Amino acid sequence: MFNTFFYNSLAKEITPLGFSGRVGKNANDPETLKTNILRMQRWTRKFDLFAKDYIVIPINEDFHWMVVAVINPQGALIEDGNEEASRNAPKCFMVFYDPLSGLDPTRRMHITHMIKEYLAAVCGATKGANMKYAVNKGATFDKNRVVVVRPKNAPIQNNFSDCGLYALHFIEGLFCNIDRPVTVDDFPEFDWKECWPEADKMCEFTRDKIYNLIKKRAGPRVRSRIEQYEHDNRCGLSREGESRKSRRHSAVPCSAQYRTPRNTNYYRRFYSLNPPPIKVVQEEPFFSNPRNVATMPVTQKVRKIRPPELSFPLAY
């Protein structure tokens, strides 16, 4: 898994959406991309990138989180002298996940193009004949064997602030399925709902998981400050909670037999809710929920038009 600097370094000084084929690009963008890739090749000099089963790339662009997962990168290689067997092997799948539905292919085409160029460059520098990670007579990178897909029925955020939580849920879902991790055999017909039927609800727990991890890793001083903040602001964990310790947030006793006044150190449980949605489109609540708009039949039909209207909100 790469860190967040990977894509920022790859896209440095590149025209936004320039490689999508739908907006104008700078004539120097291809050369700039080559320069960026050359600078980044040392990141993988100590291991064979194509020997990995997964390459996970978190992306933050314009304050929005997305994820690209390259599954079976070995499938994009054509082994010299054994071309037929290579072409009969499973392909490489590049899974692009955008919590704002990703129906608009513009951003997807731009990002996946640059990642393909990066993989091709790494292959040329490490997998050729007599090179460091060469196999037999070497191998070449075939871009046509990289299938770009958008996960079917993947969860869509219902506001404009929780993209990071949904991106984390997607990464977790790739590896934490009940039976086994998601593999190349699941594509291209992979349906996210079949593995995670309640994915939209599960994303709401991600905030609490992160909160609990912070509390477990933090020292006593930090935990004390967090607990004091909760007490002063009458807020705490959301839905998942913690066993026992979270009972200090517990509600008023159910039975009427408890007449003793409640201790001031204990208070009714308050739930941390999502931030208020951004008011858009004449403050209509429906349009502040990307999930509602993205699932509309008319939205999906418009997004199939080539090319779609660039003035249509990119979020959907």
Automatic annotation (TrEMBL):
UniProt-listed PROSITE patterns: ULP_PROTEASE
GO-annotated molecular function: SUMO-specific endopeptidase activity
Keywords, ordered alphabetically: Hydrolase, Phosphoprotein, Protease, Ubl conjugation pathway
Record Pfam families: Peptidase_C48 (PF02902)
Gene3D superfamilies in alphabetical order: Adenoviral Proteinase, Chain A (3.40.395.10)
Claim: Heme is one of the keywords in the record: no
Ubiquitin-like protease family profile domain mapped to chain residues: 1-174
InterPro entries: Papain-like_cys_pep_sf, Peptidase_C48_C, Sentrin-specific_protease
SUPFAM superfamilies: Cysteine proteinases
GO BP annotations listed: protein desumoylation; proteolysis
GO cellular component term of the entry, any: cytoplasm
Recorded family membership: Belongs to the peptidase C48 family.
Name of protein: Ubiquitin-like protease family profile domain-containing protein
Originating organism: Caenorhabditis brenneri
